[in-house]
Records
---
Amino acid sequence: MNPLHRLTHGNARWAVDKGVEAYRDGGVRGLVVKTVSFVEKRRVRAVAFSPLGSTAGTYRGAVVMLADVDPPQCWHYRVQQKRQACAARGIPLVVVLPHSSTEVLSQLQLASMLIIYRQPMSMLLKEVLAEARRLRIPVVYEADDIVYRQDLVAANPNLGTLPADLRAAVIAGAADYAAALAACDGVISSTRPLADDMARGVSGASAVIENGIDAQMWSIARGIDIDCEAGQITRSDGQDVVIGYGSGSRAHDADLAVAAPALVRILAEFPQVSLRLFGPVAPPPVLARFADRITRVPILPQGEFLWEFAHVDIALAPLLDVPFNHYKSQVKYAEAGLVRLPLVASPTVYATYVDDGRTGFIAEGDEQWYQVLRRLVTDPDLRRGVGRAARADIARWDVDGAIADQFEAMLATFNVRVAN
């Protein structure tokens, strides 16, 4: 097979992989939207962020990151936040979209490190890895979900609502992520449990760079605060309470079902309570009789989502206690805290982050979910107090501070050194 044919075949496989991912996350509509978006993105091959001048903190050569703009929430947390963290410390960063090996190879020539973010193995990636090896550039694989573990993906109950052929494709695709991970020197992830699991597949080190709160999110939060003070966003002082749950893909139906028995009791007991679902998650069948009190909000850009999310009174983060979920991050807690919402969450993942009763609530079992929700529904002062405490707590993930520190620590871990 000649090189041109190999590259064409690799790009076709990449397109198929992305099509499967789009359909998984958004169905036929998601596939159409992604196809249109891809045609537009072909006009902009690479997103390069200029080096920030020769300061004491500038690194020799840019950090090159191979990443795609989809899913949008992943691009925001794992790519755009790195841009801000690097800008805060004078570290040059170049982000290249995985559509052309020519641009990736060109950017590698003077790079000090290559980060491969959530990419499956492909002909393009094989070519990029070979060039990085020739140049002796450290290559680290980054993921924020356990997409590379075929056993855990297959056992994830949330895939049960997908069509059988799509579910099989998602499970099979995990092998391509695993192959890409195994070809790298080390790993980066959003949590320590995930970093430790990923590290089993490589010979090198691991590093954690958490999902953070960036300047854009702080700005949106300040705007929401102003709207609340001006009365443009109002929260209930009585029983007219809105409970909200957000999801970025279709694969969260089984998670929401964890809270469903408690929600049935709350909606039956309090006629003025309603449920607002953000994203493509489906309401559990047991809630069908409350359909007139359930509203749906489509997937929105980050800023618009946060503004809409700020209109609810209580946020939910139920998670099934299954291995696939043990590696998730604190994003739902961070977003709820940013807009001063009290979060009710499962102990899976969230017990690590939430100070139960002060910055949020941990609920396990139908009765505890019901009791916590009932308490919040009937006590507006409690909702406000916990929301304020959560806002103060999530500041520990400020991108210019802690997340930038973690990025610098990651560079040190992989011996990417400051120029003399």
Note: The two ends are 45 Å apart (CA to CA).
---
Amino acid sequence: MDSNETPGTSNGVPSPQPPPPSFSARMAVLWGDGLGKAAVRSIQVLAVGAVAWAAVVAATRIPLVTTPVLLALILASAMAPVVRWLAGHGWPRALAVLSSFLVILAASAGIIGGIVTLVRQQAGALAVRAEAGIAELQKSITTGPLPFSKDQISAAQAEFQKFLSGGSLGADALTGLRTAGEIAAGTVLTAVILFFFLKDGEKIRTFLIGFLPAGHRGTAHLAAERSLLVLGSYVRGTLIIAAIDAVMVLAGLLILRVPLAVPLAAVVFLGGFVPIIGATAAGSLAVLVALVENGPVPALIVLIILVVANQFEHHVLQPIFMGRVLRIHGLVIILALAAGATLAGVIGALLAVPLTAVGWTIYRTVAASRTTN
């Protein structure tokens, strides 16, 4: 090399320098490492979560629309096998739909009306005995081996009442059941939507799936079919399990000669529609009544019956009647119940588990489709 030449020159002529990297290239380097990829995925998760949260909040703001649609969808899923069976045995589809619709309306009105009437007729006696049971329980606590002062108990009661009156659970429950007019309108709307779901469910599903890209429609149809199967199995299984829980509690109350056995069993039946904790929580009223009318030993026996019924439901009845549905850990179910109750009160607690089961079914279907492809 000539001593007069400098690096980067050739015969005194500067060699061309590579152009500086473009902005997109610099961004690719910045977001292409491990931390950048994690940041991108985090932004994606946050965006999807924000959209999902906005959808949930919007749905809870219009319960007069959302609740009838979800209830009608669940009932239609449970009734669909009956409609298909009647249509397969020569019934015209319109007649099969109308017959199933009228039967389910009559059965629902009879069961719910009978239970509500029975409970309302005995509501005064139940309230009196429950208050006496609470007083008896308070007395036992204050005189027990680990006594609490009356001031401590009163403070705890005040805090609990404050939670019920000011917390979102009580507020949402009262909002959902604000007036009898809203209940009547929701019931009528549910019946109308249920009829159209039974009559034109396939057309509605095809119409909605038609908005998806063509390559995803097959998976969407499969996910919808499996979700309907899950919902139908859940409703039928829950109804059977709630009835068995109520019969077990009723038998125990009758043997122990606990007053108001039939309305107490009806309360347990209604509570059975909330999985895992519903029947046991509703049965606590029976424990209080037994404590007042029959003493601590019968009350303890009633509590044992409730615990046994809960375990029998969890380990025997649910695997038999809902083994293909609730393939979800009990902790997930409890968290779903808590979230549903917080967002939509009583209705949210009733709908949380079936919606969680449907969401899990859709996820598994989509994941299996991606693995296959």
Note: The chain has 13 helices and two strands.
---
Amino acid sequence: MISKIASLFSQDLAIDLGTANTLVYTRQRGIVIREPSVVAVQKDNRGRIQVLAVGEEAKQMLGRTPGSITAIRPMKDGVISDFDITQEMLRYFIRQTQNRFSFFRFKPRIIVAVPSGITQVERRAVKEAAESAGAREVFLIEEPMAAALGAGLPVTEASGSMIVDIGGGTTEVAVISLAGIVYSDSARVGGDKMDESITEYIKQKYNLLIGERTAEDIKINIGTAFIKEDPKSYEVRGRDLVTGIPKTLVLGEEEVLEALSDVCAQIVKTIRNALESTPPELAADIVDRGIVLAGGGSLLSGIDDLLRAEVGLPVFHADDPLTCVATGTGKVLDEIDLLATIELSS
């Protein structure tokens, strides 16, 4: 009874706690927060940490802060790498969503989507961070299931659906049937690894050091997994490692394809392994329905063309790949029976 009353006077939340971005969904308003998973902090003379900025404002500080200020990404490979900073980030986002003018405020119930390969220790860390940040109850569900729900796949039916969620830190591949994950695999490659590969390629080939944000800009503007007609180019600025002075070069789309080839190969391999491990009846369903792509990494130009060529199956993007996990997690807020089926134990 208390739980039902609390639900009436709290803003229950669904959170896609991503390596690159955190999205928060409320039952009443849908997605209300879509911010980078970055926190800018400053240490005072006594060594105490003060949070200066969270989200987009903090991301703008990456690589540009003075010595006393640090811009931190507390999530790595889809899991918490800095517990205290993650807790502060969650507390900030939760506070942003709650009705400050309510006379009867209860702590929110929160559902968090986490990678399918997460360990028991990592699960407990996510739950504890959310509870410490102000949650009444915390439930965890797997990202591929959330992505499939958000993409509108018939996850409760007795038929096979394959979802590939390429996020910032991980690529999640899952075959789903009857509200359960029949097969799942998680490769720790995604958008961040793409950025690192571009940075390393330019460093090795041109002796040019570029920042994290520049690598991301290159990926967004000319990143590709499959060359089409009229390849583009992009002007890149960085620091020459030989002379130490700023330098500009023009990078071609073919070079970025080369830089990203290993990451794309790992994604293809993970999908092949999933297809080889799928029961024959469900595999037949996937042949008919194809593979659905979600996550920000799936927006890499040509990734769908590459996968069609490599696995010989239809490949489609979800309607809104960036919000699939958050939207799918949000749907579970209203479906308690489904939550009981798909919730991860901690």
Note: The first strand starts at residue 13 and ends at 17.
---
Amino acid sequence: MTIRETQEQWEKEYLSPYAAFSMNSKGRDKEEEPCDIRPVYQRDRDRILHSKSFRRLKDKTQVFLTPEGDHYRTRLTHTLEVSQNARTIAKALQLNEELVEAIALGHDLGHTPFGHAGERALNRICPYGFEHAKQSVRTVELLEKDGQGLNLTWEVRDGILNHQTVGTPSTLEGKIVRLSDKIAYMHHDMDDAIRAGILIDMDIPREIGDVLGYTTGERLDSLIHDIVINSSGKDDILMSDEVSTAMKKLRQFMFERVYQNPEAKSEEGKAEMLMETLYDYYLYHLEAMPSEYLRLIDKGEPKEMVVCDYVGAMTDRFAISTYEEIYIPKSWHG
């Protein structure tokens, strides 16, 4: 018996009957020889962690555009916090930690530079639309490894695709990541807003604070405990009505005070203009894109989608420097 088979047997003996067992995966689009050491979801997690799109998350906006300060979240630190929340819940419920981690690490790979501002711009200008969850799946299926993709399992791709509120993941592990994503961004965006001086702890309305707590740590603890308590031994991931209602009110509070705050979002119009300008430029200068993107067009991918692939994959810093390179005059040195 291989090490992988021993680990798969351990899953059967220890994990909840509602867990997604590695040996029962629906598999990959392209068949591969199984690893003798790692079960399939661990293998997927490793592929995502070593991918270029994962490394680029370190220079992509979470909420505050290119913030001056070492402690504001980026898309990468958001991803890691989602992963930690999800693993904590999965471990407590005896579900598959490796599957939740793979989904969590991959859920935002398709995010644009400048956060949702960049996503709005590409969705508005591209005739095929642009949605980061779908783009994350496109990234792992097609764009990574110079057009070969990562060939991930069906369950990981399903969780990535359905990580937003409107999605319905097919596994409990995917449902955990969907909730963990919301918990993470409300937790750390509140923390960053307090750091930025936009909020203070006591701004939280009592109807929310009395249920979830008045500090970021208290709220995180309350939400995770509530999910574990209400989901234990059940074939679903649930929250109590009281906590679920308070979480929705907290999300609405964050939209009113942070996500739509003129001070926090003052630069987003410029970011959207920059993204639209780069999209237009590359649409009419396809030859300026790297060769791996040109090969996608040669294979029949619509040029508009491929331009979105390229511009959407950029980091904040690279998008700004590319814009400057193309459009900002340089000093002449005679």
Note: The mean pLDDT is 93.
